[in-house]
Write a structure and sequence with these properties.
With 441 residues, the chain is α/β, with parallel strands linked by helices. It has ten helices and 16 strands.
Amino acid sequence: MSKRSCAEGPEQHDETEKPRLGNSSSTKKAKPALDMAVAAPGAQLQAPNQQPHPLANLAVIDDDDVHERPQMNASRADGNDRKMSPSSMSTGSASLKSDQEDSTGTDGVPNDAQDRTSKDYYFDSYAHHSIHEEMLKDDVRTSTYQQAILNNKHLFRDKIVLDVGCGTGILSMFAAQAGAKHIYAVDCSSIIEQAKAIVERNGFADKITLIRGKIEEIELPVPHVDIIVSEWMGYFLLYESMLDTVIFARDKWLITNGIILPDKAVMYVAAIEDAHVKKERFDFWQDVYGFDMSVIKDIAIKEPVVDIVDAKCIVTDSKPILSLDILTCRKEDLQFTAKFKLQAQRNDFVHGLVTYFECAFTQVHKPIGFSTAPFARYTHWKQTILYLQESLTICAGETITGEISCKPNKRNQRDLDIALALKFRGHYSKMDGKTTQYRLR
């Protein structure tokens, strides 16, 4: 994109040639607009214009390859998507049928359907192997945990470990390989039945005890644990509220000066140009075979989109909006409000804000971490985009000030209510700070 002064007017875009978010084939080997290098071991976990933060200067799981990825859109109702919304899980879902046969009536409806809650459907969603397949195939995620555990056998040797939300049990088996004395692996989903078979097949039945139940409702056979491992992160870092469970386990069982993996997390925000996708996802409703269905557009645009963002779409610098120390944070800290100021790096248009997060394991011998940023390697978390009702025309050096807040939805605590207010006074456009309410579900 050629540089132009604001006096010359904003650059014009040919939207028909703009690549979709997630179209990795269009970005292969391309240099990001913000000159963000692909992260490599030892590299910083931040873009050049970010402020220093707790996760800088960590070794990260990455390599020099640009990985081709199929385009993945954000519908969490897709059975292959990692984080599934409770509302997307139908009681007659074929993907869950085999796991529910014993508790399902002849009409296909669970016998206890009237007593089921959104939390029940959440746990059911993790019963299907496809969700675990996607998580296990996320090499950035799984390899980071593997290295954090196996490269620190001196920390695990003869220790008692608690695996919160163990899934297939892979983190527990890493801990067993690292020499842990015993591991208690807890999960509320029926996947734990397969995990038991996996643990036994791999020769760890004497080292790993698997417990089915909610952390808040079970009792462990031991009064304390030395280490907690958990992969609790969701879309927008906090979606599904599993960190609440980790905090509960920490406060109940973790010894003083115990270890939590990971122990740090930071979430960021940046502005993006994304005319093509915004038009395809939302403007579509304005003319559907000649009919005006824009009432649906008004609803759809208030639901955050989980997708892959091309690094070249980033228009501004990135700023942290949430920093968590898992060793000390409280449940109340997960409801937050943050102010931020983003500075444009070039003349462009802003169609939305993108959020991403980074996690770190800083209690190990050599701190390690990973990033879900657009300029880092693909992870199954992708990024989360909040689209704006009206786009902004922005010039290099101009700033957007904003405030974002997040809290669990009152009706379903695993959903997130996100409020965003932006103020902008640019050469060509303005925004007055009106608050838009989003719901991630």
